Amino acid sequence: MKRLAISLLTLSLLGGCVTTQSPTGRSQTLLFSAAEMNQMGDASFEEMKKQQKISKDAKLNAYVNCVAERVTGALEGPALRWEVVVFDSPQVNAFALPGGHIGVYTGLLKVANNQDQLAVVLGHEVAHVLANHSNEQVSRAQMTGTGLKLADMALGAGGVANKDLYMAALGLGAQVGYILPYGRAQESEADIVGLELMARAGFDPRAGAILWQNMAKAGGAQGPELLSTHPSHDTRISGLQSLAPKMQPLYDAAKAKGLPKCQIAK
Fold first, then answer.
1. Is residue 196 within 8 Å of 153, Cβ to Cβ?
2. Closest C-alpha to 48, from 100, 20, 85
3. Are strands 101-105 and 83-87 parallel, antiparallel or unpaired?
């Protein structure tokens, strides 16, 4: 009976799936609607704000918000107001969630040394949302039979209860045991889309390779949390170096309109 129930649930979800293409042309199978993913993102972010210490540093918050607003302002389509929170933690990490949420850990700002380098990270994280990578991961887990609880919850069976499952679905709930990390193809795609996004926002795309060189040095050979499922340091840096000249015209056009001036006030 359990196997039959699993099969029926999987078939019902597959019947409503959408096959689409990512921004770089990869084929994606998405089982969940934008509204369902936004619900997961909203619940996860609320839980993060309860669990993590939030920075009270007004200058630091203003700086991060300045960069985030410029990056998200370069997105096409209707403007979405993104919620940006700076978490007071030594983690070298950041994330973006469906529903318009960005989290930045203060530890990242010791590695991302200026506005351009911070924009590289934020562009990358927002690109994950733009490219439906969370939906793709949750859908893949469902289709392989490992995401049944997530599917039940996301489809409304549990409302907004079991918030740890929301977090796990988006790769934020390590303690739960349902981690769905982005794959290397998705990470590389986020590099491409993110670098274009930050260049359109007026940040220097040449900062991409420099930022990841800094990242490679942080935390020794293993690197910080942000690198856990990413391509190798050398592969990423080489890729960003080759992408930068292609993004340069976008940066030049934005520069002609006036560069963003996001700096931490002394």
1. no
2. 85
3. parallel
The tokens describing 19, both together, are 């096959």
Cα–Cα distance for residue pair 113/211, rounded to 1 Å: 8
Catalytic positions, please? Answer: 125
- The angle at the Cα of 198, spanning 249 to 33, to the nearest 5 degrees, equals 120
Instruction: Tell me the Ramachandran region of residue 21: left when phi exceeds 0, alpha when psi lies from -120 to 50, beta otherwise.
Output: beta
* pTM for the structure as a whole: 0.79
Strand partners, 94: 104
- Across the chain, the runs of DSSP E, i.e. the strands, are 18-21, 27-30, 83-87, 94-97, 101-105
Cα(53)–Cα(140) distance, rounded to whole angstroms?
A: 32
- Summarised one tens digit per residue, pLDDT across range 44-83 is 888 889 989 999 999 999 999 999 999 999 998 777 789 9
**DSSP summary character for residue 2:** H
